[in-house]
Amino acid sequence: MSIEAYVIPRTVKEARGLLTRGKGTAAVIAGGFSLAPNPPSRIKTLVDITALGLDYVRVSKSAIRIGAACTVAGLLEAAPAGIAGRLLVQAARDIGGTPNRNVITVGGNIVQLLPWADLPVALLVLDAKIKIAGARGARLVRAEEFFRSPPLRQLRRGEFVTEIVVGKTGALKAAAFEKIGPSANSYCFADCAVALLRRGNSWEARAALSGATALPARLGALEKALKGLTPARMPAAAAAALPGVIKSLKIRPDIRADAEWRRELAGEIVKTALAAAVGRVSGKKKK
Amino acid sequence: MNKTISIEINGKSSSFSVAPDEMLLDLLRRSGYRGAKVGCREGFCGACTVLLDGRPVNSCLIFAARADGRKITTIEGLGDPNNLHPIQDAFLKAGAVQCGYCIPGAVLSTKALLDRVPDPDEAVIKRALDGNLCRCTGYKKQIEAVKLAARKLKGKKK
Ligand SMILES: Cc1cc2nc3c(=O)[nH]c(=O)nc-3n(C[C@H](O)[C@H](O)[C@H](O)COP(=O)(O)OP(=O)(O)OC[C@H]3O[C@@H](n4cnc5c(N)ncnc54)[C@H](O)[C@@H]3O)c2cc1C
Ligand code: FES
Ligand code: FES
User: Fold this and answer.
1) Domain B86-156 maps to which CATH number in 1.10.150.120, 1.10.4160.10, 1.10.10.60, 3.30.70.580?
2) The pTM is what?
3) Chain segment A163-196, per-residue pLDDT in tens
4) What is the 3-state secondary structure (H, E, C) of A97-136?
């Protein structure tokens, strides 16, 4: 290991200064669960962001705001109410084991963006915004943009994520998250989030898939096929559209499962998540 | 560069000189707290579990420097062979210990649970121990041990 200093700043400004002055040799450390086992050799200084007061979940009428250093356990304990809050809790619930969830942060989960990261799909269908602090102040990036390429490569020198903002909308009527892995403690093969929105009489479905693909992404072609349909008609339309949608995705094989199997699984998990969301909209299940 | 940090371990404050890349697990073990075990060093097995400000964490993935000014509980802080903590006693009585490698972590996770939820149901117990892998016992006895410990701690010995 090449780490020469471990610093725990107390303000965002101080952290930003340390990262900027580090000229690429300083890195943010949040939970440390990705970074600790294998820090890149260029990193000499670790800037711990867990004492900056970014460990909150704040719920207002208009948004759920999650501090980037909020742990997964912190998010679960805050248990934000409403459809969006419940979807976040569902996605966070089975991240690792208890001693992991007490340390892994929401920011670390989305910035490292491992293929099996569970929170990004939920943030994608909730159209969340990621707040990034940098030398020139803060900027907000839509989740779709943030997850389009590995965030670690997108962040400019001195920048780091401070907050995740999930805007509330009355249009959101139901949501569901599904994850499939070999065991409760293993990284998933695929995970999927679905949200159903109604504007006037017109329905819209949002679906995002991860795990089976290298990067999490909205399934635009599926969403297009479902647009304007009532929820009751969505599952049949999805079953018809999904083979083509899934075929067009670049599926990621790994040592545990080949691409062909994952492709099949990806289709099934989207169907399951959609059916769960549709079930909720018709008021059968509360979650 | 080494840094001097102060940690309250099992109720006693001490200063330590730590290297910036030293993990909490290694600091604890070289300081005599050898109940924290080295397993996978990847956050999966839970053998290294200690309580950081009352919460179970994987000490193998936490830099020692982060513990500055914080409270740690290791298995040595619970009891000793002549004076077992009720949770340790429950693990023995329930037959939940075989090789013992996972036990410090499992006992500490149990302590964190029972401090918060004195009377947990089985689903809650399973979730609280989900980060402590045991290759020997098959978990059934450990779940019984947690239930027994809960009863003991409530003073309802059966
Ligand atoms: C045993 C185990 C089980 C796991 N199980 C799951 C699972 O089931 N589901 C799942 O989704 N994930 C799982 N993970 C993966 C985990 O979510 C990632 O490792 C995540 O990156 C850990 O977050 P952290 O806060 O510890 O990140 P860190 O290691 O602190 O940071 C990760 C990277 O992101 C950067 N970074 C962190 N925070 C910020 C920020 N705010 N701004 C800018 N850069 C930042 C760091 O510089 C680093 O490069 C598991 C990990 C382990 C070790
Ligand atoms: S040694 Fe820490 S989790 Fe296995
Ligand atoms: S008793 Fe042997 S690993 Fe648990």
Assistant:
1) 1.10.150.120
2) 0.97
3) 999 999 999 999 999 999 887 777 899 999 999 9
4) CHHHHCCCEHHHHHHHCCCCCCHHHHHHHCCCEEEEEECC
Tokens of A65: 């705001």
The whole-angstrom separation of Cα A21 and Cα A157 is 9
Kindly provide the ipTM of the predicted complex, given to two decimals. 0.96
Q: B66 and A8: CB-CB below 8 Å? A: yes
A74 lines ligand 1 (CB under 6 A): no
- Distance to chain B for A193, nearest Cα, Å: 23
d(CA B127, CA B153): 20
In short, whether B79's Cβ falls inside 6 Å of ligand 2 is no
Is B73 in CB contact (< 8 Å) with chain A?
Answer: no
Q: If you measure from the C-alpha of residue B109 to the centroid of ligand 2, how many angstroms do you get, rounded to a whole number? A: 14
Task: With residue A58 as reference, give the H or E element that holds it.
Answer: strand A57-59
Nearest CB partner across the interface for B57, out of A6, A39, A99: A99
CB contact under 8 A, B55 and A102: yes
CA–centroid distance for A224 within its chain? 22
| Contact between chains at A5 and B66 (C-beta distance less than 8 A) | no
**Half-sphere exposure (CA, 13 Å, Cβ side) for A49?**
34
Spatial distance between the Cα atoms of A174 and A86, rounded to a whole number of angstroms: 10
CB proximity under 8 Å: A 76-105 to B: 96-100, 102-103
Per-domain residue ranges for chain B?
3-77, 86-156
At the topology level, CATH places domain B3-77 in Ubiquitin-like (UB roll) (3.10.20)
Torsion of CA A225, A229, A230, A231, to 10 degrees: 0
Q: Containing H/E element for A38?
A: none
